Amino acid sequence: MSDTQLTVTLSGGGLDDARRVVRVLEGAFGAPDELPSGEGATIRTATFTGEARGDAGQQEAGRLSAPVTVGVQGTPEAVRRASDTLTRAFTARDQGTASGDQEQERQLLLEP
To answer: How far apart are CA 79 and CA 95, in angstroms?
Structure first.
């Protein structure tokens, strides 16, 4: 697989919810550069860089405490894989996609 970069922004829910979402993505993208932090933050981020993994099986997500809005940005392939991974693990609603020259961005609402 080729090198990939995926940036994830999370809002809503708590720190545990943000980390739960990132752990699900680890199955497809490996460990993030840094786990989301900041108990009082309203927006959290995680970036995955390096070698992409093959499609992982269903990750045990657990339950979110509140709705979480997730934005994923990267190559079209990375965004597709992230979206597929999250929609398999959580109840998700697609809230839109924006495409650029070489990147894509998608927003999902993950529900408890």
So the answer is: 14
- The separation between the first and the last C-alpha atoms of the chain, rounded to the nearest angstrom, is 33
Rg, Å, the chain Cα set: 13
In one-letter notation, the amino acid at residue 65 is: S
CB 64, CB 11: distance < 8 Å: no
Q: Which of 87, 52, 48 is nearest to 70 (CA)?
A: 87
Distance, in Å, from the CA atom of 37 to the CA atom of 16, rounded to the nearest integer, reads 9
- CA quadruple 4, 100, 73, 110: dihedral sign: negative
Q: Cα(70)–Cα(13) distance, rounded to whole angstroms?
A: 11
Alpha carbons 6 and 56: distance in angstroms, whole number: 16
pLDDT, tens only, 5-52: 999 999 999 999 999 999 999 989 999 998 898 888 899 999 999 666
